[in-house]
Predict the 3D structure of the following.
Amino acid sequence: MDGLLNLGHHGLKPGFEQISVILVLCVAVIALIYAWLLRGNVLKKDKGTAKMQEVWEAIRVGANITSNVR
């Protein structure tokens, strides 16, 4: 056996390196779940007044034009 999850086949030494890789993957998954929850919270919020939405549309159009030019 090559340690946790058989990661020795990928050149990782048993012990600290394998635990570090697993820990980093767990933190990444937790961060993605947290980002998904924040996204849901933001999308539930009010979109603002008509003037705010008009300004947002102008910003969006300008950003799209700028990104298409590059």
Notes: The mean pLDDT is 86. The helical segments are 16-44, 50-69.
